[in-house]
Amino acid sequence: MADVLDEVFAAAVLAYRQFVPPLEDREQLTWSSYLQAHLYLIPYLFLAYLVRRQGTRLIRLMLLPTVVPMALRCMYRYKIEDPRLVWLEWSRGLLGWFVIAKSLDFAFAKDGRLKVGEKDLGGIGEPTPSRKKGSEQAAALLGRNPAARILPRSIFDALEVGMTLRGIGWDFGRYTPVPPNTRPLERQAYIRATVKTIICNQLLADLIDTVTKSIPGITNTGGTIFLQDIPSPQRYAVSTAIHLGHGLLISCSVACVYDYVSLVGVILLNQPVSQWPPIHGNLFRARSLHQFWSKSWHQSLRYTFLTLGGFPGKWLAGGLGMVFGSFFASALFHELALAVAGKELHINVFAFFLLQAVGIVLEKAFQALTGRKVGGILGFAWTAIFVLGIGQICTDAWFARGIGGAISIPPFMSPIRMIVLPLIRIAVRYSGLL
Fold first, then answer.
1. Buried b vs exposed e over 317-340: b needs ≥16 C-beta within 10 Å?
2. Which residue, 175, 191, 218, 301, is the most exposed by fewest CB within 10 angstroms?
């Protein structure tokens, strides 16, 4: 019996290594192989097309065993050996696992994916209901959106549902919290405000990135936010500042990408400004851990985490399982994506995310016992303990694997390093301070 189990285990390992080979056996990712590393997007978009058509559930379920292994193979088959490009590898992994999560959702969606207000879908080769509401309305839709007018209907439908993140306007995003608009809704005023926001976020991210990389010991091969050469009080003050800066760097970067895409949507595709509400709430106005993670932090991957862990957790253990499952899925999502760069999983990342779930459950228990929600200045302090305090173990785990010193903003795109720092050096030199 032991021999049989050994053979089964060996076969399982061999099968696993066909999709996730050891780092030393992976091929170097080059410009010529870049398209091959993303070929899984083709069957994924076909799956996205099918989820917008009636009577395709069986086909979608049969296609799933092709999409998921293909995504795994494409992600982990290639590597970039330059440690400075860990962020690029991490992004490639995040995209791949996002596609896997969306593919699972598309395959198991019983009635497909509908927009808010739709009651059914068209069949294969037929237009979706939103395109069957009369020729005049359809013509108006196509006139407003050049992509809908230029692209074949099937490709447009696949891209529309396959690329959506928060699900605004879709059945699966109906309960996603959306921050209130902070920018004008008039088109030209929105474009101007968005450009200003991009500039501010880009400069802040650039400043944080430049300062972080100047800290001794933080490199693209490792490092720690806990500097051992200074006394404890100062050490933890510095680690808190680095951790806060890293969080703001991620927040600004996510906002910049979102705003760039929103400008494409508004300017080139003539989409209404109302389709592009803010990606973040106000991070510093959160008065509870639940508010921070559900409203202040971006919700781009909310449904991804529900698909990978929240819904299975709810099936196993109700609401409690849903909370823990979602945060466990978040940790797994980030770590498996980083494994594309050949990095080992780190227990501290899982500890951080699962402790966030513990904090939220404690908030619910407090509300049940007292009849009051966590809030006010004490709620802010409570949130800060979990996010700014406990969160440092997560940031340190990422920095230990080179995230802090890797290139997040290329030097040639950095105004701080290309313009500000040289000017400061010139000013200091001519002031006689050096």
1. eeeebbbbbbbbbbbbbbbbbbbb
2. 175
Q: How far apart are CA 397 and CA 210, in angstroms?
A: 20
Across the strands, what pairs with 78? 27
Which ranges of 339-411 does DSSP label H, i.e. alpha helix? 347-370, 376-384, 392-399
Neighbouring-strand partners of residue 219: 222
Record the tokens describing residue 373, joined without a space: 């929600």
- DSSP element (H, E) containing 78: strand 78-79
Which residues does residue 53 pair with via DSSP β-bridges, in sequence order? 122
Specify the amino acid at residue 343.
K
Please tell me what DSSP assigns to residue 131: G
Map residue 297 onto helix, strand or coil.
coil
User: What's the Cα-to-Cα distance from 207 to each of 201, 210, 238, 415, rounded to whole Å?
Assistant: 10, 5, 16, 9
Pairing mode, strands 78-79 and 27-28? parallel
Q: In whole angstroms, what is the distance from residue 130 CA to residue 127 CA?
A: 8
Residuewise pLDDT in 10s, the chain (434 residues): 667 777 788 888 888 888 889 989 999 999 999 999 999 999 999 999 999 999 999 999 999 999 999 999 999 999 999 999 999 999 999 999 999 999 999 999 999 999 988 888 766 666 665 555 544 444 444 445 676 677 788 888 899 999 999 998 899 998 899 998 889 999 999 999 999 999 999 999 999 999 999 999 899 999 999 998 899 889 999 999 999 999 999 999 999 999 999 999 899 888 889 889 999 999 999 999 999 999 999 999 999 999 999 999 999 999 999 999 999 999 999 999 999 999 999 999 999 999 999 999 999 999 999 999 999 999 999 999 999 999 999 999 999 999 999 999 888 889 999 988 888 888 888 876 55
- Residue 170 φ/ψ, nearest 5 degrees: -115, 160
Backbone angles phi, psi at 115, to 5 degrees: -80, 160
Q: Whole-model pTM?
A: 0.91
Helices (H), 214-280: 232-263
Q: Which residue has the tokens 């966030």?
A: 356
Q: How far, in Å, CA of 374 to CA of 282, rounded? A: 17
CB 401 within 8 A of CB 93: no
The whole-angstrom separation of Cα 303 and Cα 291 is: 17
Furthest CA-CA distance within the chain: 81
| 3 state DSSP class of 53 | strand
Say how far apart CA 198 and CA 222 lie, in whole Å: 30
- Residue 193 has a CB neighbour count (10 Å cut-off) of 16
